[in-house]
Amino acid sequence: MEAGIDDIALFIPRLYVDYRDFADARSVSREKLEKGIGVKQMAIPDSDEDTATMAATACLRLMRKNNLSPKNIGRIDIATEGGLDESKPLTTYVIGMLEQVYGKGSFQHCMGVEYKSACVAGSRALLDSVNWINSGENKAGLVVRHRESPGTWAPSEGRAAIVIASDIAKYDIGSPGEYTQGAGAVAMLVTENPRLVSLDRGVASWVMQDDYDFYRPHGHETPIVNGKHSLDCYVEQVARAFRGFKGNALQTGAVKNSHDFTGAIDYFAFHLPFPKMGKKALERILAEEYVDEITHILGPFGPLLTNERDMLGDKSKLMEILRIKKSENVFRQKVEPSVIGCAHVGNIYTGSVFLSLASILDTEHNARKSLAGRRVVFLSYGSGSSAVVYSGVIGEGYADAIGRGIVAPALEGRQRLSMEQYGALHRKETKEPVAEKRDQFVLKSKDGEGRRHYAYNK
Length: 458
Ligand code: HMG
Known about the structure:
The chain is an alpha+beta fold. Helix content is 37%, strand content 20%. It has a single domain, classed as 3-Layer(aba) Sandwich (Peroxisomal Thiolase, Chain A, domain 1). Mean pLDDT is 91; it is low at 150-155. 3-hydroxy-3-methylglutaryl-coenzyme A binds at residues 29, 31-32, 35-37, 81, 118-119, 176-177, 180, 214, 225, 227-228, 230-231, 234, 271, 273-274, 277, 347, 349, 381-383.
């Protein structure tokens, strides 16, 4: 059995902005946000939360849920666009916080780096940890204590990896990006024989080019965004990576049906900067899949169109074809279950593609669908720009890992911000934290030498 994701824990800040308050305050129509963008709530970090507190809290939840001790973990890698230091990796802040709970020095055997490659970094970190386990390196020189429950973990399984993706998506007030904000951390336990998703070997397809669709130069707190161009980059790069993935999946035999390739995929877990993005990207992928039919249906126009891109650019024809191919059904069955998390949290950059996975698992498990053996394709995009597409199969033990849900429990006890409170937090004018915190790490202070002091609030 290939390695993969055994369990997922989320941390989402308690504070949020409701899209109706936002729309009214910015004189944007509520329908645009609800239907055009798909957002309902945006998670906003409090003044005592940062990428490190979110990552450490998600990791602690994951360890507690799985009864893990630090000795069971060989590496903790963190993907983020919100590093706190030009040199010191986020993992060290997280380990510092975790050692307040597990004891000083308890993680000193652990390795871990900070990954940066815009939103695609979470996928890179995951694939590297999976490769580490598949290569057997996680068993080097080890006598491992196993977790007693839930499930049993044989010492032969070696050390597990934890991959965390933690980010705060913050845009300028009044900019179109402002309604695609969000914040949160996803912590994933990566093991052999995973309960949630074992990743297919040899299928990942990565594409990269030099672009300025979205970037944040040193010293800028918010990104410079070329919004419309970023949509085009996303769609083109993901479609290219999907093409490579298709070739790899057919070659390795992970997917056998070349005539109905997308039919052999049960779920698409997209990077979702906002919920509507998945629909746009799916339409582009399906259009390519159906290019033969497009040529046929274009009929007399066909010879006038010199290449595939021109055909795909003919939107009215394209929509006709997609309707024929029931793309709405494909979206409803294979993408829609993934958007619930993004709709209530917003963009969480590196963790977004995994929030999509968690949403699929929750939504479909709640609908009492049988998920074992179903294939999920991950479509990860990072500005700058790059994309990676890879796949995995849901394991037999998924229900045990999902428990009472992954996304819903992380959204319990939320507090709706007024637009005044939100504005003060955005401008960093808030003196005291807005919400009282329980069972999470918080930032206590920053000193003049760039050190940060954290504590665990019981
Ligand atoms: P905008 O100016 O709000 O776009 O910017 P719009 O005016 O075209 O409206 C958006 C949609 O709402 C359109 O639908 C409108 O028709 C619709 P579409 O044509 O796209 O299907 N609409 C309505 N629908 C119903 N009722 C109405 C109504 N009015 C309009 N009354 C944009 C949108 C996403 C560009 C902006 O929010 C933005 O710049 N966001 C930040 C950048 C971003 O998220 N880009 C996504 C791709 S890049 C990416 O994913 C990477 C990233 O995660 C970072 C990283 O990798 O590090 C961002």
